[in-house]
Amino acid sequence: MELSTLGLTLAVSVVCGLDRTAAGQFMLSRPIVAAPLTGWLLGSPEAGLQIGAMLELLWLGRLPVGAAIPPDDSQVAVGCTLLAVAAQARTGMPLQAVAVASLLLGMPFGKAGQFFDRQARILNGKLLHRAEKALECGCAKSLERLHLLGMLHFALASAATLGVVVSGGWLLLPLALKTLEQPLTAVSNWLWLLFPLTGIASLLGGLKVPRGWQIFCVSFLLSLFVLVLR
Amino acid sequence: MKLPRLVLLQVFLRSFLLQASWNYEQMQSLGLLYAVTPAFRRYYTGAALLMAYRRHLEHFNTHPYLATAVIGALLRLEEQKQQGADPGFGLSEFKAAMVAPCAAMGDAFFWGALRPLVAVAALLPAFQGFWWAPLGYLLLYNFPHLGFRALGLIRGYGGGVRVVSSLQHWRLSDWSVYCKQLLLLLLGVLAALISIAATAGLGLSGAWVLCAGPLLWAVAMLMRRKISPLLVIWVLCLLSLSWSQLR
Question: What ipTM was predicted for this assembly?
């Protein structure tokens, strides 16, 4: 893997990691955006779009409410896109098969993001103490600098999570592709669709809307009817 | 002293970094100071500025998109205080009363309803391979996002404590329910699209499409029992791989 590829991925990872909590929250960090962006920069937008679409729904129901930290789907999206693009170039396997394999192996490492994010927030607590001390000393100017330093912690947490996702996937993916090449290729179409179906079920399980199941079932059956007729 | 538009613009832009130093002790308190600094520098100098900073360096946590409404109202109250007006309550009390309802409304509307709705709307073209789906997602999401941020600051600064009426007038809780109902409709369409693609890909007859309904229901019930989606996807993938090997 070239250094420029790693550098581009790291840049996307940091931008998305900052967008996730610290800066803007324009939703650049959602897998449906982060993965295609990474794929496009690495020369394979289709890989990014496929991985982003598969991953988007899975953790969508996990809300960043208050102090809760959901698994880092942004870094999983970026890291798995890098793994899939590299693995496809190396093995020549179909894109769907490598995308599914990289996601299956990369996703568990997304939990590391929760750990690193928590550490960043703990380190930010130290910035607050320094700010309090600065105010006691009558030095108001450093408040802004201390606040902005918090972004460095979030950026480092994102880079560390990406490191874990990519290293874990890098170690396991060649072994998995070598062992499961044929069955993975055979059922990749089906596996590719399991991700959004599980994501839909996850959302349906979490949504508390009056008559929600009825609305979903009517829409599902009507859409089937229209699509079959088409 | 009324704030010039340029200063309000600075406050608005700085509000995007409200959570840059989010921490477990006072959460967004440093972010609040960072956002209001351009305005505070107009209101106070020297020791008075330090006093104002000390007054506001306390627990603050609300939804980042609706924070501008609180910030705007806070700036108006600071102004009124400077002019000698007594609103009948302290600024800390006002902040404490505002942050929780704004957080609850923002979480329910933006995180719980709008974000999933726009994501599913973008996934419909994404699954058909349309490259512009992510751009559509960003546009659809950020139009209301940026609108609420800007409007919050305008209404907050323009109306002071009357921002509470504006927030009520927006009826975000009602809109959350409408968005979730629309989300369920779109989820039905997406599930149908995926089921048809799945059966076609596997060479199964059309009747198998209807199996997606019970499958979704069963997985949703597992999710309600707090089973991780990651675990479910791993088990389903292992079952599919084993089935493929057995065939």
Answer: 0.92
